[in-house]
Write a structure and sequence with these properties.
The protein is α/β, with parallel strands linked by helices. It folds into two domains: 1-80, Rossmann fold; 81-353, Alpha-Beta Horseshoe (pyruvate-formate lyase- activating enzyme). It contains twelve helices and 15 strands. The strands form three sheets. The protein has an eight-stranded mixed β-sheet, with helices on one face. A five-stranded mixed β-sheet has the order 2-1-3-7-6, with helices on one face. Helix 10 (255-269) packs parallel to helix 12. The longest helix has 18 residues, at 327-344. The chain is globular, with a radius of gyration of 20 Å. Residues 1-14 have low confidence and may be disordered.
């Protein structure tokens, strides 16, 4: 049996997530998925502990807060999703469907830095039957309108699929929903478990892509650009509706060249047969004061541009403001991206710029 250190080293080399620590809430083991994950962790030789609640995990190893944070990002907590009231997920979907929380990647700019606060560990929820039943209720309330569910609001579920199998359950569930659709986005490339599933064109899979400058400097622990594009090709061949999220779009020296090269590479890498149904979502870089403080604590050498005097302050829906680019810069970014996408992907759809 491999040692934990060997497993972690192997997972780093292959990009497949293997946690260092695994916790189970007691009720999780009442569900088949919980037992399956326990068997998987045991077979991997991983240290397994019980916890009455994820909120009580306070003894993670590490001499400093930064060291504890890094261990937390490689800690898996398996539990039951108790709250089945779904949050809204505009503009990408009507609702967020909660199957996991937390991410193993280290994207400096990620909003999960703030929303997960002091508990950045990764959680998988085992009561997917109840989650899907709740989704069916939301669909029934809105029909005959289509109800879209975003599965990647609080996690990157593709990076956990080899452990959870939850995306496969959702995809096949949504295939039978006349008025329901599933969406999720990923920075990972391990899509093989999804390729043979019955999806009925009801699941749109999107890949997060960006200029080389952004991926190189701000997206540690994610699949490389060419790996994401190879995975996107596999998804297209499997017949899924396909999309790309370009986020966060950053204003930096040479940004025009960077985003031109990104879209040029994308247009050459993807078969023209997928252009017609392709979707793009465009999100400019933004941050809050709270996020800035947390980011600088966790990634003290980050090159992220977070100078308030060069930004515009914009109020958010929860009363907390965020810093975005001034209107002139935002307009230049938007116009450039729209022009380039229209030229290179004339049959595609841009869903929004925000």
């Amino acid at each position: 049996m491999s040692t934990t250190a060997e497993l972690i080293r192997s997972s780093t080399e292959t990009g497949v997530f293997i946690p260092e620590l695994v916790y189970f809430e007691p009720d999780a083991l009442l569900y088949p998925k919980g037992k399956k994950i326990r068997d998987w962790a045991t077979a991997q030789g991983l240290p397994i502990s019980m916890t009455t609640s994820h909120n009580r995990i306070t003894d993670l190893p590490g001499d400093t807060e930064l060291a504890k944070y890094r261990i937390a990002k490689r800690t898996l907590v398996v539990g039951v999703r108790k709250t089945l009231k779904f949050d809204t997920s505009k503009p990408s979907a009507e609702y967020a469907i909660p199957i996991a929380t937390g991410c193993m990647a280290h994207c400096h700019y990620c909003y999960l830095q703030t929303t997960l606060g002091a508990k950045p560990y990764i959680r998988i929820y085992v009561n997917t039957d109840a989650i899907m039943e709740a989704a069916a209720g939301y669909i029934a309330e809105r029909k005959p309108e289509i109800t879209r569910f975003e599965a990647a609001c609080t996690s990157d579920p593709v990076g956990l699929e080899h452990i959870s199998g939850s995306l496969a359950e959702l995809i096949e569930f949504m295939a039978d929903q006349e008025y329901g659709r599933l969406r999720f986005v990923t920075k990972f490339n391990h899509v093989e478990p999804l390729l043979g599933l019955r999806h009925n064109d009801h699941t749109r899979i999107r890949f997060s892509v960006n200029a080389d400058y952004v991926i190189k400097n701000f997206e540690p622990g994610t699949a490389r650009f060419h790996e994401r594009i190879e995975a996107a090709g596999k998804i297209a061949e499997a017949g899924y509706p396909l999309g790309f999220i370009i986020a966060p779009i950053m204003w930096y020296d040479g940004w025009q060249d960077g985003y031109y090269e990104l879209l040029e590479k994308l247009s050459h890498a993807m078969p023209r047969s997928v252009f017609r149904g392709l979707s793009f979502e465009l999100i400019q870089h933004r941050y809050t004061k709270t996020a800035k403080n947390i980011i600088l604590q966790r990634y003290p050498k980050t090159k992220l541009d977070m100078q308030e005097d060069t930004r515009k302050y914009k109020w958010g829906r929860w009363g907390q403001g965020k810093y975005v680019y001034p209107d002139e810069q935002a307009s230049l970014l938007k116009d450039f991206m729209y022009t380039q996408i229209a030229e290179k992907f004339p049959e595609s759809t841009i869903e929004y710029f925000t």
